[in-house]
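Hello,

Following up on my earlier ticket. Below are the two sequence lines again, exactly as submitted.
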Amino acid sequence: EPEVTQTPSHQVTQMGQEVILRCVPISNHLYFYWYRQILGQKVEFLVSFYNNEISEKSEIFDDQFSVERPDGSNFTLKIRSTKLEDSAMYFCASSVGRRLNTEAFFGQGTRLTVV
Amino acid sequence: AQTVTQSQPEMSVQEAETVTLSCTYDTSESDYYLFWYKQPPSRQMILVIRQEAYKQQNATENRFSVNFQKAAKSFSLKISDSQLGDAAMYFCAYRSRTGTASKLTFGTGTRLQVTL
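Thanks for your patience. The regenerated structure is below:
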């Protein structure tokens, strides 16, 4: 069964460092998303991406964040200068379309720890 | 903006019994989707069930069913014949079906414990 794959599963980084979280969405999916879940809190939307551009972003997704689909298969989230409050579980998701088949498939997540 | 509220932080059910998790939402839209996601200790988000707002019939998936009350903006999840593997966090989520909005808006979650 096709699945969304995220790497690494756990990343520890020092405050101020740049991190790149990687995701391989399901191959025929067209819409890609990043969500964040701070420990013990709800899952929050960060950004959606379609046709090689951001289609929507939340207030959390400030200038420190960027997304890219560098090679047609990977979908990355970059945090330029990490802060302690960026520590969270980051989920990548993908879906075939926005209106048709609305199920978003989630990856297993990347736990980011900023120290 | 849409909001999703889950008023039960924790619930407990005995194995083989039935439990209902509550969810309410607020929206001005008439066309949307509602979901229940399960998050086991592995932290992966797994879709449990989906409901289209334009459908009056409540969705069912094996032991999982929903009670969708559109006028009341209520979307509860019923788990029948509960199993130990059902223990997890359960998140209710909303998704617009119109315009450019395609994101999921989640509630705060309900932690379900299953006891012997």
